[in-house]
Amino acid sequence: MTVRARGRLGPGVAFWIVGATFAVVMAFSTVPTPLWPLYQRADGFSTVMVTVAFSAYAVGVLIALFLAGHVSDWVGRRTALVPAVVLELVSAGLFLASHELWVLLIARTICGLGVGMTTATATAYLAELHERDRPGSRSPRPGHVATGANLGGLGAGALVSGVIAQVFPGPLTTTYAVFTGLLCLCLVALAVVPETVPTSRGWRYRPQTVIVPAGARARYAVVAAAAFVAFALFGLFTSLGPKILTDALGVSSLASTGALAAAVFVCAVLGQLATGSWAAPRQVTVGLGLLFVGLALIVLAGVTGTALWFAAGGTIGGAGAGITFKGATQTAGALADPAHRGESLAGIFLTAYVGIFVPVVGLGATAQAIALEAAVATFAGVLLACLVAIGVAARRTLR
């Protein structure tokens, strides 16, 4: 095994370059969020097609997580992260080239592939660079930066996109041009970041596997189901959230629709940071409670047509989703044998990303048959019923 050239930068500066790259990649993935209503008006495709285009991203993430998310363990972190950023640039180029539906589907899938490659790679990269910069340190800095870059980046992308679309001309191209520049800067900066993983000679590729811990399947199923609901709420606000605000609740500002999606993810980050020292079962319990309140407010928004309740439900539910997911991953990791912890966590991510697109596609289909407000209330009501069942099971299994 050999270590690649270290590059010219020290691990301290490299740490922040990787963190910034992580944030930019995640932010780019939510750039279309406040723009979906504009795509609909420009091309005339239906609400369900918005959810399908959004879902292409989640499918790409899932494919990358299981085919390439773990490859950096063998080929090196930088070697895996650079192609991920290149995929985001290809996606941006497609968005700039056309806004026909089939192009959007391909662009979103490629974007998801890049995100799936980035998430695990950048998280591990940050931890290793931190250890090189501060040997023996027990600081939570790597985890906090990874959390902020991941969920915070998702929120920032929607906010920046909404503001640019509101202020500058060419809303369906200007934002992508800005992020193309940012991604190019990240690619240049990565060229001088040191590698942290030895190159494995003669390694044989295998896809990521999923292992449910034997003897703990009931507890594992509970936290996986909780992750499903948590990401379903994220999916709502990053797919049809802007359309709901615009068409059903009367909010026409693109900046406002982007800001609400951003607030959901910011609250998720803040919730995770505020509960960082809590035991995993307590995180899951509190997170589910906040999710319940948030979804109940979304039902109320659908019934009354009030944007304020929708925004309150998103922010409270976002905090609950962030805390729930953090508790779910910690629980799954603790239940698994150390040798299979990655495979155990892979199952949680699989369930979560299924949750981010399957329910919202159902919402889009429902909105074709009934009023959008009623479809939103139905969507949130179904998730509330799921939460009740999960809460009962959690009370029995997570003690």
TrEMBL record:
<feature type="transmembrane region" description="Helical">
    <location>
        <begin position="174"/>
        <end position="197"/>
    </location>
</feature>
<protein>
    <submittedName>
        <fullName>MFS transporter</fullName>
    </submittedName>
</protein>
<feature type="transmembrane region" description="Helical">
    <location>
        <begin position="249"/>
        <end position="271"/>
    </location>
</feature>
<keyword id="KW-1003">Cell membrane</keyword>
<keyword id="KW-1133">Transmembrane helix</keyword>
<dbReference type="InterPro" id="IPR050171">
    <property type="entry name" value="MFS_Transporters"/>
</dbReference>
<feature type="transmembrane region" description="Helical">
    <location>
        <begin position="105"/>
        <end position="127"/>
    </location>
</feature>
<feature type="transmembrane region" description="Helical">
    <location>
        <begin position="80"/>
        <end position="99"/>
    </location>
</feature>
<feature type="transmembrane region" description="Helical">
    <location>
        <begin position="12"/>
        <end position="32"/>
    </location>
</feature>
<feature type="transmembrane region" description="Helical">
    <location>
        <begin position="44"/>
        <end position="68"/>
    </location>
</feature>
<keyword id="KW-0813">Transport</keyword>
<dbReference type="Pfam" id="PF07690">
    <property type="entry name" value="MFS_1"/>
</dbReference>
<dbReference type="InterPro" id="IPR011701">
    <property type="entry name" value="MFS"/>
</dbReference>
<feature type="transmembrane region" description="Helical">
    <location>
        <begin position="218"/>
        <end position="237"/>
    </location>
</feature>
<feature type="domain" description="Major facilitator superfamily (MFS) profile">
    <location>
        <begin position="13"/>
        <end position="399"/>
    </location>
</feature>
<feature type="transmembrane region" description="Helical">
    <location>
        <begin position="307"/>
        <end position="325"/>
    </location>
</feature>
<keyword id="KW-0812">Transmembrane</keyword>
<keyword id="KW-0472">Membrane</keyword>
<dbReference type="InterPro" id="IPR036259">
    <property type="entry name" value="MFS_trans_sf"/>
</dbReference>
<feature type="transmembrane region" description="Helical">
    <location>
        <begin position="345"/>
        <end position="364"/>
    </location>
</feature>
<dbReference type="InterPro" id="IPR020846">
    <property type="entry name" value="MFS_dom"/>
</dbReference>
<feature type="transmembrane region" description="Helical">
    <location>
        <begin position="148"/>
        <end position="168"/>
    </location>
</feature>
<feature type="transmembrane region" description="Helical">
    <location>
        <begin position="370"/>
        <end position="394"/>
    </location>
</feature>
<feature type="transmembrane region" description="Helical">
    <location>
        <begin position="283"/>
        <end position="301"/>
    </location>
</feature>
